[in-house]
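Prompt: Have a read of the protein record below and flag anything odd:
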Amino acid sequence: MAVDVYHEGERAAQRRAGLLDQGGFSARAIRTEIPEVARKFLLQQPMLVLGAADTDGRLWATLLTGQPGFLHAEDAGTLTIDARPGVGDPLYERLRTPAPVGMLAIEPSRHRRMRLNGQAVPTEHGLHVKLDQVYSNCPKYIQKREHEWDLATAPGRPQRSGTLTSDQQRWIGGADTFFIATSDREGNADASHRGGNPGFIEVVSPTVLRWPDYVGNAMFNTLGNLEVNPRAGLLLPDWRTGAVLHLTGTARTDWDPENAAAVPGAERLVEFTVTDVIEIADAVPLRWSDAVSSRFNPPVLQRRDGS
């Protein structure tokens, strides 16, 4: 089995799920270079999700945008990004210096996504990333959306807090997509996508969220990282307005099958504890159409509180 690409946490998660063999099969998709077809895919994308730790070691996920071509591979082993987080973004200071990053290029209109992990260094116009891992992911749970640009707005002032407001709780409770940044014990970062029908994220309290982990590709990159490093960061975009909600905190996997059995489609559950919140209005100039839900989304049960 080609499991040598996995670290100890990923192997541990695969064992706990009983999918070590399947994870070994999936490992064949992981490369250190960008295939030619993927280089063309990257050239077409207007956004990139990026995850990294800040100067205090807290993990965050953020969204970089640009006209198609702002992502380009000068060679198969490097990615150049003609964008960098702006002032007020939780990763602004950290990415002014070299840093390990996890990245996700995702195309909602065609249900495609691609993960790239590596070491970033700042350039005059953005970032230059030496790649360690490159691989495509299964397209399940991506909601279809079309984008357009609104270049007349500028990012608002970041609103910071330690707990979620009632409006932010409603935002999360109605979301069909979020992105999560994690890292291994050595700080190698990863960014991933999670999707489902609105309501699949449960707001347990102003500081606790819970969501189902649906069947995937058995790599367990995110849950494997959480086995060795509980720090995590979430990004929730407002697809209509360009606002973003950044959360950082800690996450843990609930492996109890009885708890998972109570949630449709759940293989297991993940619980996230919020420590810091940053909301930025008009953070990005992209605007997206209403979603066409993925046919793979499991149903969401109505909770006792009616949500």
Q: What stands out?
A: The longest strand covers residues 268-280. The radius of gyration is 18 Å.
